[in-house]
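In response to the reviewer comment on reproducibility (Comment 2.3), we provide here a single inverse folding case reported in full, input and output, so that an independent group could reproduce the run without further information from us. The structure tokens appear first.
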């Protein structure tokens, strides 16, 4: 099934999960699209089976808290940042609920965590105005960049470069093999005093960069030239909440939730809004991602909600395999 404007408008809530007692601060799909794991301010990690449409297990990180959870390339291990005690990043085996390694170094809250799409490298950005480069096999930082402001950062889809958005006004591109020589491109954007950048993502085709904010606006940049192609607004975020925005896997659409539980969808090329969906949420939609393999996406406040394209064969209990993307 191919994603089109009409298909996006046909999405409906399939399942609502109420496993959490507090805000879900992050979630991540496995690369095969079969599971999703969430982290919450209630210190829990909940693993869901996307094909069965049900929670599989719940783990806890009560001592350190849990935020910014990311799958590694192994489907049973994750890395996540801490939001209690210290700002160490932790590497956890889901199989036996044991820590494999700790990555200490940041001394303020970690605000960005991005796993390389090709190997065991990952990068982290922090309010301590640094970006650190790590390898899962070593607790020692592999590279350290001191910046002029707080960063958001992400790998490109080929894992060759990473982008750093700094001080909500410039984007710098670095070659992973020679990042210590400085950026090979810098894009300066007009500074918006009303909001700060909270996230940066590449589209899967590597051509676009999506900048999300804690205000009521998103921007899409040309990843090669740095030109602002579109600014998207018209969604509710009056309280300055960090709302996750995402591309669809085909790079054709941009999605974000809002504080009133609605989900807004735009065409990335034309800039036109194509859908406004009711997410059935009780609070701001802090997390929103499309499944990388199947025709479903998830959104979260304190509840996790999965959405399927209609019509649903055999009802919403149908295996998501039946909606595999092509």
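Designed residues, in position order:
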């Amino acid at each position: 099934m191919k994603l089109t404007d009409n298909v996006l408008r046909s999405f409906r809530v399939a399942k609502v999960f109420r496993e959490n007692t507090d805000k879900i601060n992050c979630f991540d799909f496995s690369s095969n699209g079969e599971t999703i794991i969430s982290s919450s301010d209630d210190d829990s990690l909940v693993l869901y089976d996307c094909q069965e449409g049900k929670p599989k297990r719940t783990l806890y990180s009560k001592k350190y808290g849990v935020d910014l959870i990311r799958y590694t390339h192994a489907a049973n291990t994750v890395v996540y940042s801490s939001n209690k005690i210290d700002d160490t990043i932790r590497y956890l085996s889901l199989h036996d609920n044991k820590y494999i390694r700790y990555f200490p170094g940041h001394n303020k809250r970690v605000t960005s965590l991005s796993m390389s799409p090709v190997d065991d490298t990952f990068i982290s950005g922090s309010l301590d105005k640094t970006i650190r480069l790590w390898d899962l096999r070593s607790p020692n930082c592999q590279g350290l960049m001191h910046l002029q402001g707080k960063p958001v950062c992400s790998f490109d889809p080929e894992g060759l470069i990473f982008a750093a958005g700094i001080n909500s006004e410039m984007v710098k591109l670095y070659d992973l093999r020679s990042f210590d020589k400085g950026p090979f491109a810098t894009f300066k954007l007009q500074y918006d005093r009303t909001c700060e950048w909270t996230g940066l993502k590449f589209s899967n085709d590597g051509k676009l960069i999506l900048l999300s904010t804690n205000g009521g606006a998103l921007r899409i940049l040309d990843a090669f030239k740095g030109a602002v192609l579109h600014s998207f607004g018209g969604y509710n975020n009056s309280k300055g909440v960090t709302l996750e925005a995402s591309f669809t896997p085909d790079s054709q659409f941009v999605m974000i939730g809002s504080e009133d539980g609605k989900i807004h969808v735009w065409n990335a090329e034309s800039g036109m809004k194509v859908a406004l969906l009711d997410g059935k949420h009780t609070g701001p939609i802090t997390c929103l991602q499309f499944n990388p393999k199947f025709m479903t996406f998830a959104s979260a406040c304190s509840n996790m909600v999965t959405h399927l394209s209609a019509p649903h064969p055999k009802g919403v209990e149908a295996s998501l395999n039946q909606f595999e993307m092509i």
